[in-house]
Amino acid sequence: MSLFDELDAATPAAPAPEKPPRAKVSAAPPPEDEPEVLGSLELASRLNPSQLAAATYEGGPLLIVAGAGSGKTRTLVHRVAYLVDKGIPPQAILLLTFTRKAAQEMLGRASAIVGRRAAQVSGGTFHSLANLLLRSQAHLLGYPPGFSIMDQDDAESLVARIRNDFPEVKRHKRFPQKGAILNILSQSINKDKPLVEVMADAFPHFLEFAPIIEKIGQEYRAHKIQNALMDFDDLLVGLETILRDHEEVRRKIAGRYDYILVDEYQDTNPIQARLTHLLGRDHLRVTAVGDDAQSIYAFRGASFRNIMDFPNIFTGAKVLKLEENYRSQAPIVTLANHLIAQAREKYDKKLVAIRGSGQEPRLVAVQDQADEAGWVAARIEEFINEGVSLDDMAVLFRASSHSFDLEVELVRRRIPFTKYGGRKFLEAAHIKDFLAFLRVAANPADSLSLRRVLTMVEGIGAKGAEDIVTWVAGQREKVVDLESAPAKGKAKKNLAPLAALLHQIAQPGEELAFRAQAVANFYFDLVRDLYPDDWPDRQSDLKEIIRMAESETSLRTFLADMTLDPPNQKRSGPEEHKAQGLTLSTIHSAKGLEWKIVFILSAVEGRFPPSYAARSAAEVDEERRLMYVAVTRAEDKLFIMLPLGTIDRRTGLAASPSRFLAALPEGAGTSLWQNDQEIDPSELLNLGGDFGYDGESFSSSPAIPRDPERRPKPRPANPRPAPGPALMALPGMRVSHPIYGPGLVLETNGPQAIIDFDHFGKKTVTMQYARLTAI
DNA sequence: GTTTACGCATCCCCG
DNA sequence: ATGCGTAAAC
User: Fold this and answer.
1) A111 CB-to-strand B distance under 7 Å
2) Is the model's pLDDT at A10 over the cut of 50?
3) Nucleotide nearest to A156 (CA to C1')
4) Does A702 have pLDDT greater than 60?
């Protein structure tokens, strides 16, 4: 049986449907001279010489430094196929990727080349590998095999409960919030640095609270052990502890994998680097693939130094570079090279464009976010009319909230889209509620989930739940009969159905589908009381979750999957899976993907880089790499949006172009556009006269505060189709909405109105955008 | 003493 | 849309 059996079951035998290999990538030029070693695969006709060398390398440790668009995934897929074809048992190949979806796609593609055997390859993320191995070895850490995994939300609420018990918190107004505390604790672990050092580096303003945060950390750890809870960091640390302290276990586990391949190595942290070494040091057949220029996860402890250090840790490692870019037209590659040239420390490599020249990347100046949304949506409509498929276009942004205006605009124009990167589905309260029942069943010690479940009962609040949790903790049997829990009156009465449910779903050996159905029977009606405004939407989400539970057999696996690999896509309608439409994505979630036409939103100071992420040179470097990743997603056309009239709420300053664009030299191959005309930067002054153009290039100095009196009224940067006179709706009025149809205005609140639509229920709409008509 | 309802501010990236 | 603090209701 292979390691990731649940993955095998889900791996399609055919190539992954999402992103079939691009024709032009497979058109990689055939090598000049035929290599001697060739399996039955005819790899030489599919790969260029550098790719071929990497895919078929037979020595020890190998580092493949692969530039953006250089066929990195293709090479890795072929290396897997090569090894399988060579006769290496697929289970003995370990492929570690950044997401499990990436592993599934690669193995799907390898299967297409070399047959179904490739689907048996052990693939997944470091976290999913750790989860699986720890289930059988948890006792070595003092954990039961049924331990729960906390997502960030769970971890934060645990920290919050501990935090608020410290009297200092109330005395000091500026005491760090739960998120900040967890961040500090986590970085200390992931970066291998003492807490005080992390704080001095990244949180100097909280330094005075270091001793208290230290104490909070101790309590947090104690709590996790008591409740059999592990956070994401614990999975990695736990696995490392076992491999380090139990040599016979390490040898057994490491002995399963003859070849180890790690993708996206630039986004691994020091613990993951050590895990790689612990697993691979016996045979050294370790391949790491990555691009230091695309390292964008420092905020969670990743270090691009890992990839720089690989040849030191695995001495004698062969370093191969892939520098030919097959993805983007030449001007886009030129811009990318100029962007990354500003970075301080990197492998010496430069992308060479294979494709010919095309349209220069355009910087598009607009007034504000509303104009930006209007311009992008209008341009997308034009492309649609020209016959471009929605699947070939994407809008990328630094932060999830940057696309809000655009989302409204797309709905208005009925352009279908899917948004990736927002943390929506799993974080929704009703989903967490639903999973909490199952978590109690899987791990009776999980008081976090028990508390959550208890507070859903009418009549039980924070105090009542706490009393019962304390009572449960004092019982010998953890799977207790809540019927006899301390509660009275209404609480006692309402507790009975919950007690019955928990009794039912905690039976060992029960089918997962049965348990999920039991929870649904209990919770479905509750949703109506808990969320009177939008319970139908939430109920359909629950149906989706139940559907997912039905395709899984083990309760533990299901819960681990939901936490480690949550459906990361914003809620989409029931049958919208196929026609997913336009892609909206954070840059982080767009890693590794490509589209013909790409828009980058809000490339202005304060937003990209955001002020909170540009406090040190290291942070600025990371943001620059993020811009590099965004730019290199584009194949043919790239539009970088500059909403230059936006005023920063906190500083009161008007926006200036992102420093990464401002620093571009002459000849970086971009052009500046406004009102659909190419302009000279000096003409931008028309827009407000304060974005620091100094005659040579954009200055990166802060813009001058606007004087609202003197500001020349700029003409709209891009006249949207007339917004139309906003209908002033009044409560009680019947109105019609272009998308939702007829409805009754319930109330108005400034620019917004709450309308009960006949066919869609209650929605809040902004009258200015909604194009309401009276009926 | 608890629970619940309501108004208010806030929202970065992710396994 | 969620998380928090305060005030009314049980």
Assistant:
1) no
2) no
3) C3
4) no
**Which protein residue's Cα is closest to nucleotide B13 at C1'?**
A588
Q: Round and report the angstrom distance from CA (A176) to C1' (C2).
A: 19
Q: For all residues of chain A together, what is the average pLDDT?
A: 81
Q: Return all residues near A551 (Cβ < 8 A) that are at least 6 apart.
A: none
Q: Is the CB of A300 under 7 A from strand B?
A: yes
CA A305 vs CA A273, A287, A346, A609, A616: distances in Å: 10, 17, 9, 22, 17
Confidence of residue A712 (pLDDT cuts 50, 70, 90): very low
Token digits of residue A235: 């999975």
Chain B nucleotides near the protein (CB, 7 A): 1-4, 11-15
Query: Could you give phi then psi for residue A225, rounded to 5 degrees?
Result: -65, -45
| 3 state SS of A285 | coil
Rounded Cα distance, A294 and A307, in Å: 11
Question: Which nucleotide lies closest to A459 by the C1' atom and the CA atom?
Answer: B3
Contact A418, A570 (CB under 8 A): yes
Tell which wins on pLDDT, A4 or A194: A194
Q: Which residue has the tokens 């070595």?
A: A140
How far is A468 from A456, CA to CA, in rounded Å? 13
Residue A336 is which amino acid? A
Residue A54 confidence (pLDDT) above 90: yes
Question: What confidence score (pLDDT) does residue A332 get?
Answer: 95
Contact A348, A93 (CB under 8 A): no
pLDDT higher at A511 or A37: A511
Best CA proximity match to A768, nearest among A720, A736, A721, A726: A726
Q: Which strands sit side by side in the sheet containing A773-774, from one edge to the other?
A: A761-766, A752-757, A741-749, A734-737, A773-774
The whole-number average pLDDT for the span A430-434 is 90
* Short-list A222, A107, A191, CA closest to A183: A191
